[in-house]
Write a structure and sequence with these properties.
With 296 residues, the chain is of the alpha/beta class. The radius of gyration is 20 Å and the shape is globular. The chain starts with a strand and ends with a helix. It has twelve helices and 18 strands. β3 and β4 form a beta hairpin. It folds into two domains: 73 residues, no CATH class; 213 residues, 3-Layer(aba) Sandwich (Rossmann fold). A five-stranded parallel beta sheet has the order 12-11-15-16-17, sandwiched between helices. A four-stranded antiparallel beta sheet has the order 1-2-6-7, with no helix packed on it. The mean pLDDT is 93.
Length: 296
C-alpha cells in the first residue's frame, strides 16, 4: 500500500516511507535538530533546511545518538504519485525532487501547444489552476487575468461528501469579476475535472458574468479511475470522464470547447518519465493488485 508514517516515541522520532514511494516524505534540518514533513514548504515556515527525500522503503530513526537509516522492506518498483504535481501538493514545495510550481507552469505551456484556441482572456480556476493558467497565457500570448476570486476560508470541494454541499461550496468559494469577463472570450484553466459538477457551476458562473465564449482547458488527462493510494477520489461510477466522452463532458459542463492535456505531455512537463510514476487515475493501470470489491 501507500504510506508515509511518522511516529514520536519518548526516545525517538521514526519516519517510514512505503517501498514504492507513492507519497512524498522529506527530511530537513534546523540547527542541530532534524525535521520530517510531507512537503518542503513546511520547512520554509520554520527556516529549516531541506536535506533530501526519505527514500522509498526507507526507515529513519532519529534519537539522542543522531540519524539512523535502514531499508527493512523488500524493494519494489518506484511509483510516485503524479497527482501530487497536478493538484495535491502546494506549489511552493519541491516534490519528488521537482518544483511543483514549475511543473504546473510547464503543463500550462504544453496545454496551450496541444489545445490552442482564439480567445481574449486566460482565467485560472483558483488556486490550483493558477500556475497552469500563467503557463497557458505565456505560451499562447493571450492576456492573463485573475477574473475569479477565491474565498480561502472554504476547503476543497471535490472531496466533500454530498452534492448539495459541493454545489453550495462552489458559490461560497469562487466569485467572478464581471467587469473583466463581460463580452470577452474566456479560457478557463483548471487542474482536473473529477465529477464535473464544479466545472459546470464555474462555466455557468462565467457565462452569467457576460462571457462571449467559455473554453475549458484541463492541465491533466481525463480522470477515469479512482485512487486507492491515499487520495479521497470518488468511485469510478462518479467520475464523469469514465462515463462520458470528451464531447459529452463538454456538453454537460456547458463549455464551448473542452481540451485536456495529453498523458505524454503531462509526464514530459513534470519530468517524471513514463516509468517510476503512478498514473492510474488517468490510465486505469494500477501498480499494485486491486481487489475487485474496491475497483467496482
Amino acid at each position: 500500500g501507500a504510506f508515509s508514517l511518522l511516529f514520536l516515541t519518548p526516545g525517538a522520532l521514526v519516519a517510514v516511507r512505503d517501498p514504492r514511494g507513492f507519497r512524498p516524505l522529506v527530511l530537513g534540518k534546523l540547527k542541530d535538530a532534524w525535521c520530517v514533513a510531507s512537503e518542503t514548504c513546511a520547512f520554509d515556515l520554520i527556516d529549516a533546511e531541506y536535506i533530501r527525500e526519505v527514500e522509498p522503503g526507507e526507515m529513519l530513526i532519529i534519537d539522542g545518538n543522531g540519524l539512523h537509516s535502514s531499508k527493512p522492506f523488500a524493494e519494489k518498483p518506484r511509483s510516485v504519485c503524479t497527482f501530487e504535481h497536478v493538484y495535491f501538493s502546494r506549489p511552493d514545495s519541491i516534490i519528488f525532487g521537482r518544483s511543483v510550481n514549475e511543473s504546473r507552469h510547464k503543463m500550462g505551456r504544453q496545454l496551450a501547444i496541444e489545445r490552442p484556441v482564439d480567445a481574449d482572456l486566460v482565467v485560472p480556476v483558483p488556486d490550483s489552476g493558477v500556475a497552469a493558467a500563467i503557463g497557458y497565457a505565456a505560451e499562447s500570448g493571450i492576456n492573463y487575468r485573475q477574473a475569479i476570486i477565491r474565498n480561502h476560508y472554504v476547503g476543497r470541494t471535490f472531496i466533500e461528501p454530498s452534492q448539495s454541499i459541493r454545489s453550495f461550496g462552489v458559490r461560497l468559494k469562487l466569485n467572478p469579476i464581471k467587469d473583466l469577463i463581460n463580452g470577452r472570450r474566456v479560457v478557463l484553466v483548471d487542474d482536473s475535472i473529477v465529477r464535473g459538477t464544479t466545472s459546470k457551476k464555474i462555466v455557468q458562473m462565467v457565462r452569467e458574468s457576460g462571457a462571449a465564449e467559455v473554453h475549458m482547458r484541463i492541465s491533466c488527462p481525463p480522470t477515469i479511475s479512482p485512487c486507492y493510494y491515499g487520495v479521497d477520489t470518488p468511485s469510478q461510477g462518479e467520475l464523469i470522464a469514465a462515463q462520458m466522452s470528451v464531447e459529452e463532458v463538454r456538453e454537460y459542463i456547458g463549455a464551448d470547447t473542452l481540451g485536456y492535456l495529453s498523458h505524454e505531455g503531462m509526464l514530459a512537463a513534470i519530468g517524471l518519465g513514463q516509468t517510476g510514476s503512478c498514473t492510474a487515475c488517468w490510465s486505469g493501470k494500477y501498480p499494485t493488485l486491486i481487489a475487485n470489491s474496491h475497483a467496482a
